[in-house]
UniProtKB/TrEMBL annotation:
Main subcellular localisation: membrane
Repeat found in the keyword field: yes
Protein keywords: Leucine-rich repeat, Membrane, Repeat, Signal, Transmembrane, Transmembrane helix
Listed Pfam families: LRRNT_2, Pkinase
Localization terms from the record: Membrane
MF term (GO), any: ATP binding
Keyword NAD: no
Name of the protein in question: Protein kinase domain-containing protein
Biased composition annotated in UniProt, kind: Low complexity: 225-238
Transmembrane feature ranges: 245-269
An annotated GO cellular component: membrane
Membrane topology per record: Single-pass membrane protein
Amino acid sequence: MNPYSKLTFFLILLLVLHVVASDEFFHEERDSLIQLRDSLSSIANLHSNWTGPPCHKDQSRWFGITCSNSHVTEIDLQGIELTGTLQSTALQSITFLTNLSLSNNALHGDLPTLKGLLNLSVVSFSKNRFSGSIPTEYVALSNISRLELQDNLLNGLIPRFEQASLIVFNVSFNFLQGKIPETSALQRFPNSSYRNNLELCGKPLEKACNVTPVPQTQDHDHPVSSTNQAPSSSPISSSTKSLEVWSLALIAMAAVMLPIILILCFLCYKRRQKKAIKLGYNHVGHTGKPKDDKKKTRNVELEFFSSEREVFDLDELLRSSAEMVGKGKLGITYKAMMESGSIVVVKRLKGMSGVTRNDFVHQMQMLGRLRHENLVEIITCYYSTEEKLVIYEHVPSGSLFQLLHGHEGEGKVHLNWEARRYIVKGIARGMAYLHHSLPIHQVPHGNLKSSNVLIDHNNSYPYYSPKITDFGLQQLAGQASTRKLAAGKSPEMSRGDGELTAKADVFCFGIVLLEMMTGKVPSENEEEVLEWVTMISDNKWSTGILDSELVVEKEKHMEMFKLVQIGLECVALQPETRPTMSEVVRRMEEMDEERTWL
Ligand SMILES: *[C@@H]1O[C@H](CO)[C@@H](O)[C@H](O)[C@H]1NC(C)=O
Ligand SMILES: *[C@@H]1O[C@H](CO)[C@@H](O)[C@H](O)[C@H]1NC(C)=O
Ligand SMILES: *[C@@H]1O[C@H](CO)[C@@H](O)[C@H](O)[C@H]1NC(C)=O
Ligand SMILES: *[C@@H]1O[C@H](CO)[C@@H](O)[C@H](O)[C@H]1NC(C)=O
Ligand SMILES: *[C@@H]1O[C@H](CO)[C@@H](O)[C@H](O)[C@H]1NC(C)=O
Ligand SMILES: *[C@@H]1O[C@H](CO)[C@@H](O)[C@H](O)[C@H]1NC(C)=O
């Protein structure tokens, strides 16, 4: 290269640099956003949208981003089903940020740090699944006007916020506890900013803080239940009055129709005829009512947990033709085909008459925000004193139980090792996600068994994708009914000594795993389940225990036994010795890696 071409090269380089620079933006801001984009997933497909520079002067071509003077100043990503965790420092470089809203998504993990983001004025993390405590450094956000943290899984104490700039502050529907700090900033907010927490006390709540932890009977004036459960704070209860009139009519109709429906269901089920029946009542039954003309406007609106789903109201749901698909300890499950042609699954819960609206709705909103390819999605729910419905997405194929133990014959699917491995891993991943997402639940699933694992078989062989259902209801069902659920069959429960923990779910997972490997149906009875496990562990290293369909794949026996070994550890008598679900996932992934080296 001669000096001239060197110079030309240099000039061109300068020119290029100049062009880039005129499209001015701040790299550390872009890098932060790109990292954010890559660590989360969403229906908004940020990946294809957040490309190029985020800001061009005061303009942004990035979804949800607003710029000012080439700086990112607003991030508004509400309600786009963002899932994943935020890194603690995710936003730290975006120093000109004024508005940040991530509300109404499915983010989990700790709240991010907002250190140094002194221009922040609006911060909303509401309606997610953030856990951990509220970072105390948030008290240093000197220009904050809105701080919305409601409807998460936050625990611990409320930091001493003292900012006079606060106009909106909400921490309701979390698991916070302790005394609400008596700062003038915090005392200005109504009690609805603090309701529905684990154990908050002090003004502005009616519940006084006890100096020593004395039982609630010491509390005078107001019974504690009215403090925590005043129905007026429920997000869906603004129309309580009309709802009540409505549900009375509904209950009356249901009372008349229910026996008929049940008999019809029974007959349908018996004859295995797929003849449609009505889930609730129909128009004919309703026309006798004097208020009928107003009926159209009185449809009970259901709250939908995902914006992607088709919306319907209670009336449409009850008009759908329904077919009973299962009857379990927690209620009856129907497949409901709506007039629009779409299909959902409705679970009519039983034995939950003591559950309050707030508890039910809070729990369902929490479960409704879970998003994982191995979990069945909860679409919406309905609460009345008499009737509690959970509406799930419909998974077309049957359950793992049917797949494993279905009748021999033409339609019988043979599950080879590859398919079973894939299914087991999917279940483990779904369970690990559940355990991670619901850290405060005593037993996050509570009722894991092969009939509660649905198999999505739309994809091509061998990819039977498992989807776990029936999770999180144990929390509502209460101690008494837990016994009847799968977790109630764990040794700690049948011994009656231990508290149930997430490890009871691990036990149930172990049972499902062993059931898949042996092809044998585990007993419904607690003691027999343990005998069944003992029988398998006594045969530990013999092919005698394997399902006959697996025995033929001789070269895979070593892998199979590794999986059986994991299963046996999961069903260990002592809960402490069982691995966690994430350990199980890790070990299965290790097995996959070993494979690729062979
Ligand atoms: C991103 O999405 C927004 C609106 O959703 C659109 O206006 C913009 O052009 C998109 N940008 C790119 C780079 O695709
Ligand atoms: C905050 O915003 C003001 C303008 O309103 C600006 O001058 C200042 O540099 C910003 N502070 C930070 C820390 O970005
Ligand atoms: C950002 O916050 C300011 C100050 O509270 C507010 O006036 C403005 O409307 C917010 N912008 C958006 C997009 O919400
Ligand atoms: C503080 O926030 C208000 C809006 O709430 C805004 O107008 C003002 O510029 C902010 N001040 C600083 C120093 O960021
Ligand atoms: C706080 O949030 C809850 C739940 O979204 C809502 O019901 C309540 O009205 C809010 N209170 C205030 C003061 O914003
Ligand atoms: C708290 O809210 C209830 C209504 O839910 C109201 O009756 C009561 O007066 C409120 N208490 C205070 C201290 O504001």
